[in-house]
Amino acid sequence: MGKLVLIVIVVILFILLILYFRSEYEKNSFVLVKYRFKSKKIKTAKKVIFISDLHDKQFGKDNEKLINAIDECKPDFIVIGGDMMITKGLVDLKPGLLFCEKLAKKYKVYYANGNHELRLKDKKYDGLYDELNKSAKKMGICRLEDSCKQLEDICIYGLDIDKKYYKKLDNAEFDKAYIESKLGVVNDKSFSILLAHSPLFLNAYADWGADLALSGHFHGGTVRVWKDIGLMTPQIHFFSDMVHGLKKKDNTNLIISSGLGTHSINIRLNDRAELILIELLPLHTNKD
To answer: For the CA atoms of the chain, what is the radius of gyration?
Structure first.
């Protein structure tokens, strides 16, 4: 009996060791995920890079691997969906800002808030939110704080989702009226990109009229148990299918990024970090 127990322990330890090294690999490498959308509102084809949940992560020195991958895509502009830093304990804005600075030297960057950016407004982080905005402005980055930016046939919106909607074990919801109170009525003449950090409110994004909503926040579900179903989210949702991939409601597409970094739950299994490339095409084009 003792020998059998020893064998079981060795097998369990071996499996845990394999899972550990697999998780380290998935955390320290990333995959490029591509999406393509056609719309009559798009007049000229565009490539957009979507970045979410970097959380101070570095892929190579000063994120050179990530920047090289972005350069190879030749994007027309970059949108950041929030959570570039870890707002927990002692906060260091430098890694995220250095990455943003390198991007801004080459591309136009539009940066919306995640819950970690919004936490910087708390008194204990006195001055850090202003520092973030001042640094971004100096770099030429467009910060979207409950605001929008018109780019020819595209309008990019950044929605600041209030703290109460990020609480753990809470099912608070908001609707179209909540978005309109912050962003106004959607411009339905332009193709609308809504940067809304949480993916939980697809119904509201669709009712508001977003053509494309971009979210992250849930880090792909930490452990992907089946297709787009994640084991657990940072808000303690178990076996949710709203953690990754493309979702659709009416005329709205929602892309949920698995993100690039992690923080408190520092694990990834079957859940590679990802960089997202979005191609926006006119309705009548030969591309599939």
So the answer is: 20
* Cα angle for residues 119, 120, 121 (degrees, 5° grid): 85
Q: How far apart are CA 288 and CA 268, in angstroms?
A: 32
For residue 225, pLDDT beyond 70: yes
- Residue in 168, 177, 155, 100 with CA at minimum distance from that of residue 131: 100
- Which of 144, 138, 134, 70 has its CA nearest to residue 107? 70
The pTM is what?
A: 0.93
The amino acid at 61: K
Burial class (CB in 10 A: 0-12, 13-18, 19+), 6: exposed
Instruction: Give the type of residue at 40.
Output: K
Query: Is 284 a residue whose pLDDT tops 70?
Result: yes
Least confident of 106-115, 152-161, 219-228, 271-280: 219-228
Whether 97 and 131 have beta carbons less than 8 Å apart is answered as no
The HSE-up count of residue 134 (CA atoms within 13 Å, CB side) is 6
The pLDDT-based confidence of 64 (bands split at 50, 70, 90) is very high
